[in-house]
Amino acid sequence: MSIIYVLIPIAVLFVMIGLAVFFWAVRSKQFDDLDKEAFSILFDEKKPAVVQKPTVADAAKQPD
Length: 64
Fold this sequence. Notes:
Helix content is about 60%, strand content about 0%. It contains 3 helices and no strands. It has helices at about 5-25, 35-40, 55-60.
């Protein structure tokens, strides 16, 4: 029975920590755009085209 005097304050502390973390997440806008991350796994990002520099061999192949 005396363990209840220890467990209740610990439970209240966990609830307070959980609420603090939740309100921090809401204030820092963690929940603003939930769909973006859900769709980002489905679609690949566009990769920029790689521009290759002409080499000496390529310059010799070009007609004058």
